[in-house]
Write a structure and sequence with these properties.
The protein is of the alpha/beta class. It has one domain (30-207): Rossmann fold (3-Layer(aba) Sandwich), CATH 3.40.50. Helices cover 42% and strands 11% of the residues. It contains seven helices and five strands; from the N terminus they run αβααβαβαβαβα. It has helices at 14-28, 39-42, 48-54, 69-77, 102-119, 139-154, 188-206; strands at residues 33-37, 59-63, 88-92, 124-128, 160-162. A five-stranded parallel beta sheet has the order 2-1-3-4-5, sandwiched between helices. β4, α6 and β5 form a beta-alpha-beta unit. α4 (69-77) runs parallel beside α5. The termini are far apart. This is SGNH hydrolase-type esterase domain-containing protein. InterPro entries: SGNH_hydro, SGNH_hydro_sf. Residues 62-192 form the SGNH hydrolase-type esterase domain. Belongs to the 'GDSL' lipolytic enzyme family. Platelet-activating factor acetylhydrolase IB beta/gamma subunits subfamily. Pfam families: Lipase_GDSL_2.
């Protein structure tokens, strides 16, 4: 998968401006924990679980709505996190790539992991599995499951994979609007379900001596 900057479809330079903002933040701020990726990272800072649990850990969130694997790869190739030395990096990417070939997505995620490890070799790296979408079971979920089932294999020796809390799909396989307000993006409660395991992983990586 090629590294590509997103086209300025609307003529307002929003994507470039956001990238420049990320780059400037990385130059002047420090972070123990760095979040990178797509919609789920873009909204994370607005959520209670972030403000109450993640923010005290000294985090930066560099997430952009609609970012695909090729977009994040482009950002990384520009060296936008080169000045940061976080202890932990958490990535959510690939959700906007569903529809591409399965192997292309997995190879792209693998390349992102390799790029991050090259620039930040001492950082503990985590990837979130892709999230399910749609109220009821559907072909897109089947595709997401197929990608998720191979993610650990493709990230072996590069990153740890954080699983998705099965309760997000309910016992009957249905996603509740109280967890995903549009059956794609997470609500406050949805973020709690998905990011509590992230919090556990991050806290354990920062303070392994406190892990029971």
């Amino acid at each position: 998968m090629d590294s590509l900057a997103r086209k300025d479809t609307f003529g307002d330079h929003r994507w470039d401006d956001l990238h420049n903002w990320f780059t400037s933040e990385a130059k002047v701020k420090e972070a123990e924990v760095l979040f990178l990726g797509d919609d789920h990272i873009a909204l994370l800072e607005q959520m209670l679980i972030y403000r109450e649990n993640f923010a005290p850990l000294h985090c930066l969130c560099f997430g952009a709505f609609g970012d695909r694997i090729c977009d994040l790869q482009w950002r990384l190739d520009q060296g936008y996190i080169a000045g940061l030395t976080p202890r932990v990096i958490v990535v959510s990417i690939g959700n906007c790539d569903v529809g591409q070939d399965e192997c292309i997505i997995l190879d792209g995620i693998n390349k992102i992991a390799e790029t991050i490890k090259k620039s930040n070799p001492t950082s503990r790296l985590f990837f979130l599995k892709l999230l399910p979408t749609g109220r009821e079971p559907n072909p897109r979920r089947d595709f997401v499951n197929a990608v998720n089932n191979k993610l650990e294999e493709y990230l072996k020796n590069l990153a740890d994979v954080i699983d998705i809390d099965p309760s997000i799909q309910g016992t009957n396989g249905k996603i509740d609007v109280h967890d995903m307000f549009d059956y794609v993006h997470l609500t406050q409660e949805g973020y709690r379900k998905i990011f509590e395991p992230v919090l556990v992983a991050v806290a354990s990586a920062i303070n392994p001596e406190n892990t029971s």
